[in-house]
Design goal:
Elements lengths: L12 H7 L9 H5 L2 E7 L7 H12 L3 E7 L3 H7 L5 E6 L13 E2 L1 H6 L4 E6 L7 E6 L2 H12 L11 E4 L3 H12 L6 E4 L3 H13 L6 E3 L3 H6 L5 E4 L9 H14 L6 E4 L9 H8 L3 E4 H17 L8 H17 L1
Helix pairs in contact: 3-12, 3-13, 6-7, 6-12, 12-13
């Protein structure tokens, strides 16, 4: 990876104007007022609850830390900013989750196997005194896992049974990995409106050694013949189906929900509301529905474990849940 000893960013006014507001963040007075600071690094961050979640954690621990939004895909800028001695780590979101990996010194197994990094944390280099290693983790996987572990009283509901993942993006990849590694799914059904996205997921998972369990469910007739799932992770927006492929996906999901075995469904969509049409259908069919905010909260708690060195039991999880629920209530009433 490329390293530099520079801890400040020197820029000319024209460049500052071209790349604002991202570059302006390096001069943000809030950084100087914090004991330690981190970043939320990605694009379209205005609605993200990540800074709120982490601020609640730090306030609960009595830490003068804060996470600042860095709305940018400028990797060179980011790699300069992380050299600040007061930098503790970053949440990494789209479009930077894959692009950041070549710049990291170490990847956790989840990060390596999923092929995406949503968490940057620091560790001391044992071979070079004073040098900090840039390490990558994927806590989205833990968010999926803990959503089920923390909310489903009886693991027999989903363990040693097939599972279903709806979608074909980054969240779906994390869900597949969590179901495979932690939740003991015997098979993982994939349902999505775009066959090419499913093919890409299956290809990548097989290359990384955990694709043998994947089954692409393409039709209602096929779904009717399959054993019912115990866990469902829905990773699609809360839009009414319009195209024929979208309608087919909805029908396949309804077939799975209608089978005799009733399990738990994690509805990953929570923006603008965690109470989705798909979630309502699942509840009506007798399924337990886990709100997407649960996955968001638990992946954030896992991040703070890396950054603070504390266990989840030592972090103010209850206060985080209260703060996220309050923010959602504000948004729904707006």
């Amino acid at each position: 990876m490329t390293t530099t000893t520079t801890t400040t960013v020197t820029i000319t006014p024209p460049l500052l104007q071209q790349q604002a507001p991202a570059l302006q963040l390096s001069f943000d007075p809030r950084i100087q007022n914090l004991t330690k600071h981190g970043f939320l690094f990605g694009k379209k961050l205005a609605a993200s609850m990540s800074p709120l979640l982490h601020d609640v954690v730090y306030q609960g621990l009595g830490l003068n830390w804060g996470q600042l939004r860095l709305d940018s895909d400028d990797m060179d800028l980011f790699l300069n900013l992380v050299r600040d001695p007061k930098f503790y780590g970053a949440s990494v979101t789209m479009p930077n989750k894959v692009a950041i990996i070549p710049h990291l010194d170490y990847l956790t197994p989840e990060c390596r196997d999923v092929g995406a990094c949503n968490t940057l944390f620091l560790r001391d280099d044992p071979n070079t005194p004073g040098r900090r290693l840039l390490c990558g983790a994927n806590t989205d996987v833990i968010g999926v896992r803990e959503s089920f572990v923390q909310n489903v009283p009886n693991a027999d509901v989903y363990e040693n049974r097939p599972a279903l993942v709806v979608g074909g993006g980054g969240a779906a990849r994390s869900a597949v990995y969590a179901l495979h590694k932690y939740l003991q799914a015997t098979k993982i059904y994939l349902v999505n409106r775009d066959p090419s996205e499913v093919e890409a997921v299956m290809k990548e998972c097989k290359e990384r050694g955990y694709g043998d369990k994947l089954v692409y469910v393409e039709s209602v007739e096929q779904a009717e013949r399959l054993e019912g799932p115990g866990a469902i992770v829905a990773c699609i927006p809360d839009f009414a189906p319009v195209t024929e492929s979208e309608k087919t996906v909805r029908k396949i999901i309804e077939v799975m929900l209608g089978k005799d075995h009733k399990g738990a469904m994690l509805e990953m969509c929570y923006n603008p509301s965690p109470f989705t049409a798909l979630g309502a259908i699942a509840e009506k069919k007798g399924w337990q529905v886990i709100l997407g905010t649960e996955a968001m909260i638990w992946q954030g708690i896992e991040q703070d474990k890396y950054w603070t060195g504390l266990d989840a039991s030592e972090l103010p999880v209850a206060q985080v849940k209260e703060a996220i629920a309050a923010r959602l209530a504000e948004l729904s009433n707006a």
